[in-house]
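Entry
Fold in token form

___
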Amino acid sequence: MSQEQYEKVKNAQGFIAALDQSGGSTPKALKLYGIPDTEYSGDTQMFDLVHQMRARIITSPVFNGDRILGSILFEMTMDRDIEGKKTAEYLWEVKNVVPFLKVDKGLEDLADSAQVMKPMPGLDDLLERARGLKVFGTKMRSVIKQGDPVGVKAVVDQQFEVARQIIEHEMVPIIEPEIDIHSETKAQAEVLLLAAMTEQLDSLGPNQQVMLKLTPPEIDDFYAPMVAHPNVLRVVALSGGYTRDEADARLARQHGVVASFSRALTQGLTAQQSDEDFNKTLNDSIESIFQASST
């Protein structure tokens, strides 16, 4: 891994822009962007349109490494070009933004009030390809619906098992055990999650580092032990369906935690906006998330 990328992720101010909507979430992302599903047919057209959206964000003059640490890409985005370079290379070489890759293949059906990740065949080959494109790390998401100890343990055990595989490829995994913001046992799930993550982190070797992407907790600074843990490179927060204002407010109360927002980042952007309006809206979004990440 690049030492320059490592130092930026570890020490620089800023946040991670999550631009990794996959097949399941792309129609919703396009609809919010002002492109209803009646305007395209089939996956090829859909993914062409979402790449245009992402490229417009990434090439915007307000999107750069001054306020953005890194960006999470969907596999198909990594393989596509922006202004003649592969997207990951463009991010790092032109924008000074560290590229990450979403590697999970989606979620299994609900069991024990949680959804673990589907199998990831071909992960080793994907990681080697990503490394060749200057990708620094990965991201993979599971979902916890309720404070069920069996479900929480299953999610965390699987996340760390795959994380160890990713670390072997000299990449830094972002572990994302999202807790549903609508869960009536959210606080209970957070207690279980903290304990399960601590046990797994304590079992890592001294040079094995991960990042954690977590739902903002009900008790402020609840994840402070994770921020301080020697095996955690950085703790980032997901927006989880909160509006940007709410996500920013919750994040600002978590000291040492920075944002990794997706929907909250692109809120208000539309295909119909002039470049001037688009860049202003994006700049306001980036600035508010940057400020919330600076506590």
Summary: Residues 3-292 form a domain with the TIM Barrel fold (CATH 3.20.20.70). The chain is about 45% helix and 20% strand. The longest strand covers residues 137-144.
